[in-house]
């Protein structure tokens, strides 16, 4: 007996019967996770949180080292852990910049420690004894400045290794400095890289610091990452390092010399008067003979004093600390 063919009408009736018996399951919008096939995430959220913890540990250790070297307040905050195409990271780098390329030991990969030129110049100025009160303009750093700052970068990589120690014995070794991003190629343009961003606070100024790792160089290490390992293993290391650094900082600060200046007074003259100055001329200062003078410590007005002599040398007797009112009046009348 030949098989009977179904008409279009029969097929529609069958489909309607099926849909009535087995209604389609409704899917809530919150059950759907967006996935960007153009930019796939190579590391999980748990791994991101672990990387955040590792580099918060690094930021803490490195900031204490900078305090001891620069003799000023330093605070480093981990602000983000991002996954980008390497081409996107390179486009985000300003020119000139300071890109310190380092090898990732045990792998064929390299990473980048990026700092802004302004941060590099501030570090150099502080290391050479300057105050670094004003933020310098971005420029390429000279060969001498590169030599001065290299020790800081190498120590940063040592601190980075210590921060990673709870997860892996991975190490980082300084290779070279590049000041133009186009000359650095640690990964193909389409490779996903991990970029950890930091804000570096030195005094009242804020600077940029980034770490860039290609994911292919960290595949084995990333497989080990979980938050439990970091909280149970690396935090004691961090606490130990913190105590050691606090002791070091206290020892170095206690023996640090600060410049002290006793300012007798001020006046102002015109350019014409300046050009006419000659030996024997007298400049009349604004302070009276019986007025207190100011003592300036490390560039800051701190104390009121009276001038005199001790054992044949000029000296000052400290009267009191300067108040905010004293400093306000000085600003008005200076």
How would you explain this protein's 3D organization?
The strands form 2 sheets. The chain has a 6-stranded antiparallel β-sheet with strand order 1-5-6-3-2-4. Strands 7-8-9-10 form a 4-stranded antiparallel β-sheet, with no helix packed on it. The chain has 2 domains: 45-254, CheC-like (Chemotaxis protein chec, 3-Layer(aba) Sandwich); 260-274 and 286-333, SpoA-like (Surface presentation of antigens (SPOA), Roll). The model is unreliable at 231-239 (pLDDT under 50). The chain has helices spanning 8-21, 45-70, 86-92, 117-127, 143-164, 219-224, 227-254, 271-276, 324-333; strands at residues 74-85, 98-104, 110-115, 172-178, 192-202, 205-214, 260-263, 293-297, 300-310, 313-321. By secondary structure, the protein is α+β, with helices and mostly antiparallel strands. It is built from 9 helices and 10 strands. A hairpin with a 2-residue loop joins β9 (300-310) and β10 (313-321). It is 39% helix and 25% strand.
């Amino acid at each position: 007996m030949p098989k009977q063919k179904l008409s279009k009408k029969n097929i529609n009736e069958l489909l309607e019967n099926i849909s009535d018996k087995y209604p389609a399951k409704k899917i809530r919008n919150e059950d759907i996770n967006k996935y960007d096939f153009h930019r796939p995430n190579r590391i999980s959220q748990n791994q991101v949180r672990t990387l955040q913890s590792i580099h918060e540990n690094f930021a803490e250790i490195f900031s204490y080292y900078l305090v001891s070297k620069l003799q000023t307040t330093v605070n480093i905050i981990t602000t983000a852990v991002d996954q980008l195409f390497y081409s996107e990271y390179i486009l985000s780098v300003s020119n000139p910049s300071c890109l310190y390329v380092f090898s990732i030991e045990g792998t064929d990969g390299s990473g980048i420690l990026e700092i802004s030129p302004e941060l590099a110049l501030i570090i150099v100025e502080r290391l050479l004894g300057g105050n670094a009160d004003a933020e310098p303009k971005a420029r390429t750093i000279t060969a001498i400045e590169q030599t001065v700052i290299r020790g800081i970068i190498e120590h940063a990589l040592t601190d980075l290794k210590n921060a990673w120690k709870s997860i892996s014995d991975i190490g980082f070794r300084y290779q070279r400095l590049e000041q133009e991003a186009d000359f650095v190629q640690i990964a193909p343009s389409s490779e996903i890289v991990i970029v950890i961003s930091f804000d570096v606070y030195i005094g009242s100024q804020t600077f940029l610091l980034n770490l860039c790792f290609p994911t292919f160089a960290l595949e084995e290490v990333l497989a080990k990452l979980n938050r439990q390992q970091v909280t149970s293993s690396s935090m004691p290391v961090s606490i130990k390092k913190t105590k050691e650094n606090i002791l070091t900082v206290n020892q170095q600060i206690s023996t640090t010399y600060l410049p002290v200046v006793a300012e007798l007074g001020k006046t102002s003259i015109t350019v014409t008067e300046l050009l006419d100055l000659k030996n024997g001329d007298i400049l009349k200062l604004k302070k009276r003979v019986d007025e207190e003078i100011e003592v300036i410590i490390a560039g800051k007005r701190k104390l009121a004093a009276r001038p005199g002599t001790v054992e044949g040398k000029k000296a000052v007797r400290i009267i009191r600390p300067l108040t905010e009112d004293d400093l306000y009046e000085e600003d008005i009348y200076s």
